[in-house]
Amino acid sequence: MAEQKIFAGPRIRRIRNAKGLTQTAMAEGLGISPSYLNLIERNQRPLTVQLILKLASTYNVEPSELQGEAKSSIAALKEVFSDPLLSGELPGDQELVEVVEAAPNAAAAMIKLFRAYREQADRLSDLSEIMAREGHATTLSSARLPIDEVRDVFERRANHYPNIEEEAEAFTRLLDPGDDLFSALKGWLKREYGIVVKVLPVATMPNWRRRYDRHSQRLFISERLSPFDQLREVAMEACLIRMQVAVAGEIQALKLSSDEARRLARFELGRYAAHALMMPYAAFHAAAVRGRYDIDVLRSRFGVSFEQAANRLTMLQRPGTSGVPFFMLEVDNAGHRFRKGGSQGFPQSRFGGGCPKLSVHAAFGSPGQIFVEAVEMPDGAEFLTISRTLEGPQGSFAERPRRTALLLGCDIGFKDEIVYSAALPAPPLGGTARAGQVGATPVGPACRLCERPGCLARAEPPVTRPLGLDEMVTGLSAFDFQ
Description:
12% strand, TransReg_Diox_bact_type, 6-stranded mixed β-sheet, Helix-turn-helix domain-containing protein
């Protein structure tokens, strides 16, 4: 393999200027002509091995200084230009290389400034949550990616769309699926639109869950998906065709700021519609109440997955026939939170969902097991939480499977209506059934917003307290504070 050529003109120029040398003087020391050195400094000639060794011996320059030092800076600058504030301004890779090579100190300063800006934005977000929890309206805002805007809108509003529920019920009556919704949907798509549904092997669809080919009128579904997820993909396609007016109306009501955000919202509402079709509201609500919200009973009754049944429980807020107001949170094993929602919106100010002590993180240690826990917030708010891992699409033998964990929660006051409350410790004899008296786990909204002292799970200091820097005392937490 040919060696990679090393062009380090700006670095050679910096070394020469730092030593106060002219091109003629440096060229004489290196045993080359001034014109050749001029070409090197303008990146029109690469450095040779002999020249690198000569630089090292004559000017005490480490060879590592002349190669590869720009890679980390280029990656960091790409992160800077990916910020929504600089949308559309991202230079090409060559332009970033030129910036780093020609002005490394300026590039480093830009990266440092960007990281300070992101840190301050995070702090403002934390303080905004604190103020909102205390009842103070905030107008703090920042440029966001479309996915962030969509997530924020869906998390803050109730996960219930009456128009889509009505359309789903009408669609169910039209299909009359009996016990085989998958076949009913395939028949409807073929009969009404000439669309044929095909399940294709992994080798044919290595990167897609679903793909619609408009030319051949075929809807391809990956065999990576479980039968439940295959059904949801077909139901989404059918619902987005059948309910396009209702979905468009809901998207317009969300008042999103960009076409990309509206496209993402359409996907989320399509998934909502699919769940409404797979688990019709009246039948699902009645079964949930009778079964005391046992998710495994519901998934078996309606032929859906654990995740689909749990998600549907957060949608039961029809006036007159509402259910327990559940909220949900889904995370991966690295702690990334990428799905939140609830019957009344996700309780960000009351629950947060960012505490590392929540059982949703422990669930990864016992895949498939259901964890039931009562948790107590610093302000005394108490919640019942149910956590379990979810398996993603199946890969080949050599691929690591995708695994996430779902937390379903509600106010502890509803525990008597829920079958999972039987797993909570019994209250002391003669005592009340408050969660704080039955072994509730003390948690917080997130480490940066939590002031619980001596917490062994603390990952960050609170923004509301100064750090304790007493050299004579060390607390149990990784971050002591006053």
